[in-house]
Amino acid sequence: MSIKTLHFPFFLLLTIGALGQQDSIPQEKLKEVVITGQYNPQSVKKSVYQVEVISRADIDRQAGNNLADLLNQSLNITVMPSSSTGKSTVEMFGLNSQYIKILVDNVPVINDEGLGNFTDLTQINLDDIQQIEIVKGSMGVEYGANAVAGIINIITKKSSKYKWEVTPYLQEETIGKEYNGINKGRHIQSVRVGHNINPKWYTYATFTHNDFDGFLNNKQGQNHLFNDGLRGYEWLPKDQIHAKAYLGFTPNTNHRFFYRFEFFDEETKYFNDIVDPNYNPATDTDDPIAADDIYGSQRFVHLFNAAGKFTKGLTYDFYLSYQQQTRDIESFQYRIRTGEKFDVKDFEYESRKAYFTKGSLSNFLDSDVIDFQVGYEVNEIHGYASSFAGEGMFTENIKRTLGTYDVYGSTEINIGKRFSVRPGARALFSSKFDTMTALSLSAKYDLGNGYDLRGILGTCPKLPTYEELYTYFVDVNHNVQGNPNLQPENGISAFLHLNKIFKSGDKVNFDTIFSTWYLNVRDRIELVAFLDDGLRYQYGNIDIYRTYGASLTSQMTYGNLGLNAGFTFSGVSKVLDSAELSNDDYLHSVQANGNAFYRIPKWGTTLSAYIKYNGPEYQFVTSEDLNGDPVIVRGKRDSFTSVDATVSKSFDKDRFQVTLGARNLTDIKRINTNALQGGAHEGAGTSVLLGYGRSYFLKLLYKFNFG
Amino acid sequence: MMKKLLLFFVLFAGFFAGCESEDQIADQPFVVAFEKRSYDYSRIPQHQTVKLVFSESAKADGFVRIRITTTNAEMGVDFDISDATENHELLIPIYRGQTEAGFVFENLIYPFDSDDKSIKLDIIAIDYPQPSNIQGYTSTLISFERSLGATTAPEIGGPNEGNQVYFDLSSETATQVWRDSWDLGFYCGDEFRVGINGSIYMAVKKLDVTNIDAVTESSVSQYQSQVSVGTFNPDNAAYIDYPSGQISGTAISEISSDNHVYLVNLGYTVGTTTPAPGSVAIAGEARGWRKIKVIREGEGYKLQYAELNSATHQEVSIAKNPAYNFTFFSFNTNSTVNVEPEKDKWDLNFTVFTNIIDGAGSYGYSDFVLNNIKAGIKAYRINVSGSVTYDNFDLADVNDASFQDDQRVIGADWRDVFSGSAYTDRFYVLKDSDGNYYKIRMLAFLNQNGMRGYPKFEYRLLQ
């Protein structure tokens, strides 16, 4: 991709954006209030951070039930499903879910491997969500450790204008071509009940059942008798229940309290593709057996928030939360012919329990010129990993507690009406690691004529994982060890965003953003051969990951028509001091996305379409030359394009909504790659699972609103 | 409005109640078969239960009809089977819920008077209300002849694989030996050679010294990290017996009247931990080090040995016994010990083994199967393709030129540790010391609970 072709779409979009004379802020934008990284909720326009918002309307147009349904359309974000664990995790700027923090209402959400990071996106239900806010870049000052590549903050709905609101919906989806209404396909049933008890008290509860019956593709399911690798599923079946409850109290306009409770239960079935034929030569019959697992995850979240303003203008925001998620495993031998389970073992596989509190005070001076925020964040995470977690590399069960005690502060200074700057710092004290710091410096300059320029510099540490700390796999032929003395990795990012907002009359809105960035993770933890005998491995802080890039996105609305388009270009370089052979050249890739929606008010109908192009991605992998000597080659993952389209129509005064859609119209399943590195005992894969093919859904939703 | 709400929830409930249906599984017929293909008449002192096995737990009552055919043997004189009818038939009931049945064969001529007598039993009918079939081991032979073959599971001891199991195919005899019960094997053939115990990952290094008392821990400490199995240094292949099993490949040089001192890594005791299903825990504690020197003493050997730092040594004379491959010596007891059966009384050894990986040196293998190459027992592998299958293969298909000069023909390549299953695309032919040809196929190396260290194989006489 030459610079010339890169420039073209940028200039095109910017030129379109600059066409009009009458510059002003689009109304829809004005309404878009964000809370991520803000002292107080405020408009996207005023935010020092560049906050991307996925609105409820976007979620509804895609009939998104969980986060995995949704994020694939965003630039620089990829959803990575795993066929072995059934989890779908997020990747941002090529960094995996360890480097990305997922929060609900500003509070990191727990999962069985971590608090905020490692999140399985399919476990984050969206039925009570108002919007999703994404901030890319290291956000250590605002959100603490592990927010290296960025954060995804999910904001729940906290009010309703109706006295009673009962919203049930049914959603049926095919999984690729597989659907039979019973045990093939995806079946969602949900109901949400909201109630304004009186003007001060609001409550709601949601209940959602999401039955994902798995994707067979060429596999043969549970009852396959042969050891040909075809037993089981390409995507594991899971059955989830989400229940949430909310109670909000707003005594007056200055204070607001809420308590939110969440219960989540998931069952994931793993059917082993290895079948022991258990052949009996005497009778010339078989009795095939497979070692299967059923994983059961349960999550409880309690969250209390108090926020408001004292008379002198001082604002406060306080969170208290207890969360836990446990993944249990039932591991058993399964006689395929008879369905008999035997040698059943039940045990806890992995869990995290966390106490979390966070509080901040701001607006000390009640001044438009300068504002401070000081805050603290304390969490204590009790982690457990059985010896079977961590790819079986723990020889014993691991039970550890990690406390993190942070204080942070920042100040926002407005110099004139156009320029604001916000330096910030956080000190992270830890029960295990040396004291860490995170720094940030953000600035926003209003260039006039609808142009805004934002510069954001941030740092963030990333804590080592259990695997990296506690792996212990030593026998006569192997020696792979974790390293309890590991220190956190250090991320730093710099972003520059140029934003142009343009409005013409009531009908035309334009919002164009050009962003460029550099992100660097130092002291990356990798397995290193130690001693010179080359046979003992231990994790060490050794590598560097760095990426830079630029993107251009543009949103346009013209009356009932909405159009978004984006393009991004990035380069990734890895300095692998852990590897004997490596190449730290930058490898480049491109992505482009677009979506369009058109409302036909007369028919109550909205048409929308989404497209995303993921260019080829490259990675250096070790291979062998003709003489069998190791060489570094550039592996490639093929490009792919995904397309979604939906039609939704409202009946009965907008109360009954029918959404009919198709996901993955280009039928993406596995994408060829030779960019995967094989391990010591396994060859490299030749394809990566990214989707389950073209599928269709129908969603029927009814709003019963009273009062 | 309320009506709509109600309707919606009825619909809703309908979806929740949706029950899961299962796919159909192809059925197998019900089979009753003999547990064994043959019995050794000479080893039935009084009576022997002849067992019938069912393919599954019987779902109904029934009968199996067996015909008795005799050769030079007479019922009531040479043998007896209770309940057998005048016309040489047997009717054995199948009871619902049972997985096996049986009857008693009585030997009336023990020890024996003539070895040309035999009795053949054939299943001729299965009377069962559901689909059934006569297949598998449909007959069994009671004779004084070699074994016709069997399905057997050598007891190597589960995931610690504590036993070496020596198996004789023609007599269906297994001999178990605890892996770390011996250290050195003194060759009893023409050559003067000493082997080490690869099943506990021993390793030895020749020192530039001939005086055993001159060796101290400090004089050898520089070598200790490399005189070990699994160091991934290709040079360490010199410290183990060459794995093909040729006696000329021992790590210790041929024994003459004088010899060098060797540094001996005694490997590991048998592991005691219980690993995750599918894994092994072979190695326990390190057994330490010795220094040894072996010299010829007439037609036998003299072994000098001591702890590394000992200024003195012990000496023991070890004689050859030509009926055996080796005379074995243990540092646990400081004496010779019984390990292998006589050399013409075993064909296969199921054991942990030290092999060599090209480019990576010595590497410890579990689930290994060796053929008794030192007694000339050779084998070769046949890959299943087209009409070449284990079932079809017979004596005419044997190619004598294919037999390998290597004890690792079955080796470890018979099982896939990642899938936990035995390969079904290969089988083996072995020629024993009596000139019998057997075909062998490996069936499993995990038990039904997925635990490792439970090998199972089937073999059949080619005739």
General description of the model:
The complex is a heterodimer of chains A (707) and B (463). Chain A is built from six helices and 40 strands. By secondary structure, chain A is mainly β. Chain A has one domain: Beta Barrel (Maltoporin, Chain A), CATH 2.40.170.20. In chain A, the strands form seven sheets. Chain A has a 22-stranded antiparallel beta barrel. In chain A, a hairpin with a 4-residue loop joins β25 and β26. Chain A is globular and about 85 Å long. The N terminus of chain A is likely disordered. By secondary structure, chain B is mainly β. In chain B, a hairpin with a 6-residue loop joins β14 and β15. The longest helix of chain B is centred in the N-terminal third of the chain and has 16 residues. Chain B folds into two domains: 116 residues, Immunoglobulin-like; 311 residues, no CATH class. Chain B is 5% helix and 40% strand. In chain B, the strands form eight sheets. In chain B, strands 5-7-3-1-9 form a five-stranded mixed beta sheet, with no helix packed on it. Chains A and B meet through β12 and β13 of A and α1, β1 and β31 of B.
Overview features:
heterodimer; A: mainly beta; 22-stranded antiparallel beta barrel; 5-stranded mixed β-sheet; 57% strand; B: 463 residues; mainly beta; Immunoglobulin-like; 2 domains; 2 helices; 5% helix; 40% strand; elongated; HmuY family protein (chain B); HmuY (chain B); signal (chain B); transmembrane beta strand (chain A)
What's this entry about, in short?
The complex is a heterodimer of chains A (707) and B (463). Chain A is mainly β and 707 residues long. Helix content of chain A is 6%, strand content 57%.
